[in-house]
Specification:
The complex is a heterodimer of chains A (290) and B (362). Chain A is an all-alpha fold. In chain A, 80% of the residues lie in helices and 0% in strands. Classes of the chains: A mainly alpha (290), B alpha/beta (362). The interface between A and B is medium-sized, with 33 and 33 residues.
């Protein structure tokens, strides 16, 4: 290892370390404080609270439901984001920038507003229902709201920009060059997709999946509004909010929060333990060399 | 060295961000607690509700006493009150809370006792006077229906039995995703007389869930925010709702929506003014509460916002025809069930857990 290499690594540690410290400061301290308060204020003791939430069927089921909905969102987000990323990545510079801006700009609108937009679109008297009736698909107006379908749809819409940005960031501006070179060497579009585009962007897709999964696990307002409060759409954040806001029950609320954080960490570790994923993630650190 | 100047730049940027966050996190509209107090901070629910309170209570009180009333708003989260008391930083002199929060607050010891403070409560409904809180107004969770689905001239729903009667009144419904009110309604629908719902202080939870099982497939939405059921009713997404009476009232009378409010068999609950431990001055807080529970301001508030007054004499300061439409008018009050906050304070945690589990059952 030469001096330059070591120096670069130090610098990287610094650039990763400072933001990480900042994040841990904002996340870790409140969690520790929550744990401290709850241990102090619980009538039954910290251990008893944990035993209760880990052995009660409700919490197991809602946690599983949360993970399941989040995984569906990851899947559909990737499905929607890939074609978008393809188009943006291969567009002429000006058009590409415009498209990229259009995708990013949707993140400026609050999640609440975007969720309400879906309630307008999906409700019984909404445009989708009306269009399907006039096309003769349905005989009478149908509501698409208040179901797991609506929740996954709404969350996928909100998450898509994150995934597109992640996919594009992995390959950057080189995509159109790659595409050009592949074509020069006689690759068909299909071959280009399979051998160049997808491998080149896979790292971004994995990072994006991790991001979308993490964000989805903690979702609150979208499942609340689009899910209609039914059991099948209940996510763990709703129960945490109930414990903290409604009941002022720090101990159970904190225990559920820790359970969620544990789930997030386990989900990431599980993802990392898949060999193919691991290969891509490990390559991340050696980016400069390639 | 280059990297050194970078460290400095980052530290500067980080402190700038920190400063912005600190500055942004300072509570809005609340005076610096260290400064001289010549105002009173009231925590209430915001929106049209707080506007009516401002016109009826805050502004007249400012005029009478010269003490400025600053209003802050929240969503009724009990956790917020408890956290404020525990952290020792209570920015509010008076808080507007639901009866369940009052009971829980008593149990957790976060409220100041105001009982011994020689409060003339003779004009107030006896149910609305507590050692730790004085009634502010009364709200109901009531039946509302869509008048396009069930038009005048035909049979219209009038009881919770009708709400459960899918044959005569077909269509999706909505109820509050909350075991409170919902379990009481399920028992009434199952035929339990109003005066036996809380017989011997308990609720027949098993019977309530058995009753709920029958209506569950027809509940399209378990609502969580007060305006949700009103929107669903107005849009015809549901044909019937168990919703806040005042909101149905406003949609029906002020906004001309095709909805109708039924006071009969509503669950009526009291909202209280209370004072948190650590508030700056109990005397000043009580002075405001005394004013706010006197007859004329109470009448003014109820005229502006369709919630019943706790002051019995308020009705005599109101338009008689309007008074008859309010939930605490004797004609309506007697047909409703007074919510038992004491039952729920004891049982809410367990019953809520069971309710959430029940929601997920097939």
């Amino acid at each position: 290892m030469n001096y330059n290499e070591a120096h670069r690594r130090d610098r990287r540690r610094f650039w990763v370390g400072v933001p990480l410290a900042w994040i841990m400061f904002g996340l870790g301290l409140p969690v520790l404080e929550l744990a401290r308060v709850s241990a102090a204020s619980s009538d039954h003791g910290w251990f008893e609270v944990f035993r209760h939430i880990t052995t009660t069927e409700l919490y197991q089921r809602v946690l599983l439901n949360t993970v399941w909905i989040s995984l569906q969102v990851v899947f559909f987000t990737a499905l929607v984001a890939y074609p978008i990323a393809y188009v943006v990545g291969h567009a002429a510079e000006r058009a590409g920038r415009l498209l990229f801006f259009a995708i990013i700009s949707s993140m400026w609108i609050s999640i609440l507003i975007r969720t309400y937009a879906w309630t307008v679109l999906l409700q019984r008297t909404g445009p989708i229902s009306n269009a399907l009736v006039s096309l003769g698909v349905f005989n009478e107006l149908q509501s698409f709201m208040h179901s797991r379908f609506a929740v996954v749809l709404g969350m996928t819409h909100i998450m898509t920009p994150y995934m597109v940005v992640s996919i594009l960031s992995a390959s950057g501006k080189r995509l159109s060059e790659f595409s050009y070179i592949s074509r020069v060497f006689g690759a068909t579009t299909f071959l280009y997709l399979v051998r160049v585009f997808i491998p080149q962007t896979m790292r971004g897709a994995i990072a994006g999946s991790g991001l979308v999964l993490l964000l989805s696990l903690g979702f609150y307002i979208t499942p609340e509004l689009l899910g209609g409060g039914k059991g099948e759409t209940m996510m763990i954040a709703v129960l945490i909010d109930e414990q903290i806001s409604t009941l002022g029950n720090w101990s159970t609320g904190a225990a559920l929060s820790l359970l969620l954080i544990g789930t997030v960490v386990s989900a990431l570790l599980a993802m990392y333990s898949v060999p193919a994923v691991r290969r891509y993630v490990d390559r991340l650190g050696h980016h400069d060399k390639s | 060295m280059k990297s050194k100047s970078r460290v400095v730049a980052i530290l500067v940027a980080a402190s700038a961000i920190g400063a912005i966050l600190w500055w942004g996190s300072r509570p809005n509209g609340e005076e610096d607690p260290s400064g001289p107090k010549d105002d009173i901070v009231v925590l209430s629910f915001g929106g049209a509700f707080a506007e009516a309170q401002r016109a009826a209570y805050f502004d007249p009180y400012e005029e009478d006493t010269g003490i400025k009333v600053v209003d802050a708003s929240y969503g009724g989260e009990y956790g917020k009150l408890k956290a404020a008391v525990e952290s020792g930083n209570v920015p509010w002199d008076v808080v507007d809370i639901e009866s369940s929060a009052l009971l829980r607050g008593k149990e957790d010891g976060i409220l100041l006792r105001i009982g011994e403070h020689n409060f003339d409560a003779s004009q107030l409904m006896p149910e609305a006077v507590d050692e730790y809180g004085i009634g502010a107004d009364l709200y109901s969770v009531s039946l509302g229906f869509n008048t396009i689905s069930f038009p005048d001239g035909e049979r219209q729903p009038a009881t919770w039995k009708d709400f459960w009667d899918i044959e005569s009144f077909p269509g999706p419904r909505t109820m509050k995703r909350d075991p409170r009110f919902t379990l009481e309604i399920a028992l009434i629908a199952d035929g339990v007389p109003l005066d036996e719902i809380y017989s011997s202080g308990e609720l027949d939870v098993d019977r309530a869930f058995a009753s709920l099982n029958r209506i569950k497939p027809h509940i399209a939405v378990w609502w969580t925010t007060g305006q949700q059921p009103i929107q669903l009713l107005t849009d015809g997404e549901v044909v019937m709702a168990a919703a806040f009476g005042a909101r149905i009232y406003t949609a029906q009378h002020d906004n001309g929506a095709p909805v109708r409010l039924v006071w009969n068999e509503g669950i009526i609950d009291i909202e209280y003014w209370a004072v948190l431990k650590g508030s700056s001055s109990l005397e000043r807080s009580l002075d405001f509460i005394k004013f706010a529970s006197s007859a004329e301001p109470q009448a003014e508030f109820s005229t502006r916002f369709p919630l019943g007054p706790v002051n019995i004499n308020a009705f005599s300061h109101m338009d008689e025809e309007y008074a008859r439409k309010l939930n605490t008018h004797p004609d309506n009050y007697e047909t409703q069930l007074l919510f038992s906050a004491s039952y729920w304070a004891k049982n809410e945690e367990a019953v809520r857990e069971r309710f959430n589990a029940w929601l997920g059952e097939k």
